[in-house]
Amino acid sequence: MKLANLSDAQLLASVKSLCGQDHGDTDHVTRATRRAVFEREGERCTFTDAEGNRCPATTWLELDHVVPRGRGGTKEPGNLRVRCRAHNLHYAEQTFGKEHVARKIRERRDPRQRRQRGSMAPPADAHAVADSRADADR
What does each C-alpha distance from 105 to 72, 76, 121, 128, 132 come to in angstroms? Predict the structure, then answer.
């Protein structure tokens, strides 16, 4: 049975059973959830323009929260969708404002800025880790 044919509740139950546990309230989206969402979306950006044309991007894909985590959104499959990096950034700027998004990107790339703001959290993704390591080597 294809995961795309399951309801969100069935998909979530399937993901939890694959993982063998629920990861609680952490920010982590499990690999199984990620795979399920990517399969459901056909491994393609889900953005559609005003005319209903779907973005053809199949590279630089990211998980996007329909209701952003910063506004109470969950990591449940029903709240996740696949977006290309450009459309994910576009949605974030529409939701939180360009200045806020630009500041968050700078903080991820420069760990010193995060410490200055009082947060010792690690970078949220592998790209930020690679960028911060590259900056340290310079």
Answer: 21, 24, 14, 9, 12
> What are the φ/ψ torsions at residue 80 (nearest 5 degrees)?
-115, 145
Stronger pLDDT, 135 or 82, i.e. the higher one:
82
> Do residues 71 and 88 touch, judged by C-beta distance below 8 A?
no
Three-state SS annotation for 27-57: CCCCHHHHHHHHHHCCCCCCCECCCCCECCC
Which of helix, strand or coil describes residue 75? coil
Amino acid found at 60:
W
* 57, two tokens: 């991007």
d(CA 98, CA 50): 22
> What are the residues facing 81 on neighbouring strands?
64
Average pLDDT estimate for 6-17? 57
Given a contact cutoff of 8 angstroms between Cβ atoms, the answer to whether 62 and 84 are in contact is yes
